[in-house]
Specification:
Pfam families: B12-binding, B12-binding_2. This is 5-methyltetrahydrofolate--homocysteine methyltransferase. The protein is of the alpha/beta class and about 230 residues long. About 55% of the residues lie in helices and about 10% in strands. The protein contains 9 helices and 5 strands, in the order H-H-H-H-E-H-E-H-E-H-E-H-E-H. The protein has a 5-stranded parallel sheet, with helices on both faces. Helix 5 links the parallel strand 1 and strand 2. Helix 1 packs antiparallel against helix 2, helix 2 runs antiparallel to helix 3 and helix 4 runs parallel beside helix 5. Bound molecules: CO-5-methoxybenzimidazolylcobamide. The site of CO-5-methoxybenzimidazolylcobamide (B1M) has 36 residues, from helix 3, helix 4, helix 5, strand 3 and strand 4.
Length: about 230
């Protein structure tokens, strides 16, 4: 075996090297290695949120760029996504372990025609970690799914995710239907996903666009406390 082919022992790498190696492993869709890397960083005292954003989301950004540029294709990206989910699975209970009191409830789902769910899952995890109860509708949701969940779950917040420029307009379909049914103002509507921006959020009648999961948590908290103050006052 040549030197390059020798197995890399993840635990022998320093933090910076390990994160770089995790970028490579995520790129190569190596789920077990990603899980091992996550565990090592946690053992070294890293905060779960830092592992998530610096190692996993950082790695997925590289995958995204090469996917865009036609260097990676769907099968490879699926493997990378699977590896990322392996890491997220370990982090999920830790992010939810903050012991925060329940601050509100959110129904969230990816819109019809769209099967991207990593960002949505991350938002769900962070919201749970911040004390929200989250009902996750999964992917590819037609308007009926959202409406049914709003009725049965009675959340404070409706969250929608879209990763494609072709599916993001569907968020407006959902909001317009809520307006038609006279229930729009009963909920806080938050939207997110890589191709969206603040202007789009305003244009479709959402309460706010959330750039990332941390912003989603902050925005949700702000709107829920505003709503409670209004109810109290
Ligand atoms: Co897709 N894909 N993909 N893909 N994919 C993108 C989105 C793309 C930008 C890649 C590219 O070309 N650079 C491109 C879209 C281009 C466009 O629309 N203009 C694209 C394409 C074209 C496609 C297909 C059409 C490819 C094909 O089949 N030819 C196809 C579509 C399938 C479909 O949905 N119908 C497709 C398929 C896939 C896979 C299945 C292989 C896989 C998804 C696996 C999965 O999710 N289980 C995949 C992936 C992984 C990606 C990229 C590489 C990564 C997405 C991701 O998970 N990011 C992506 C490239 C990119 O975005 N740079 C790409 C990590 C995640 C943490 O970030 O999702 O942005 P993100 O979420 C963030 C924020 O946006 C925000 O918070 C999150 C956490 O911080 N946020 C919210 C998200 N949702 C929110 C909801 C909220 C609040 C905040 O509600 C309150």
């Amino acid at each position: 075996m040549s030197e390059e082919e020798e197995d890399i022992i993840l635990s022998e790498l320093d933090d910076e090297e390990l994160v770089q190696q995790m970028f490579d492993d995520l790129y190569d869709g190596l789920k077990e290695e990603i899980e091992e890397g996550v565990n090592i960083l946690l053992e070294r005292g890293w905060q779960p949120y830092d592992v998530l954003t610096k190692a996993l989301v950082g790695g997925m950004t590289i995958v995204g760029a090469d996917f865009r540029d036609g260097i990676l294709f769907v099968p490879e990206v699926l493997l990378a996504a699977n590896a990322m989910k392996g890491g997220m699975f370990i982090l999920k209970p830790l992010l939810a372990e903050t012991g925060a009191p329940r601050v509100g409830k959110m129904v969230i789902g990816t819109v019809k025609g769209d099967i991207h769910d990593i960002g949505k899952n991350l938002v769900s995890m962070m919201m749970e970690g911040a004390g929200f109860e989250v009902v996750d509708l999964g992917i590819n949701n037609p308007v009926e799914n959202y409406l049914e969940a709003l009725e049965s779950e009675e959340p404070d917040i409706l969250g929608m995710s879209a990763l494609l420029t072709t599916t993001m307009p569907y968020m407006k379909v959902v909001i317009d239907t809520m307006v038609e049914q006279g229930i729009r103002d009963d909920y806080i509507v938050l939207v997110g996903g890589a191709p969206l921006n603040e202007e789009f959020g305003k244009a479709i009648g959402a309460d706010a666009y959330c750039r990332d999961a941390a912003v989603a948590v902050e925005t949700a908290k702000e709107f829920v406390s505003r709503k409670h103050n209004q109810l109290a006052g």
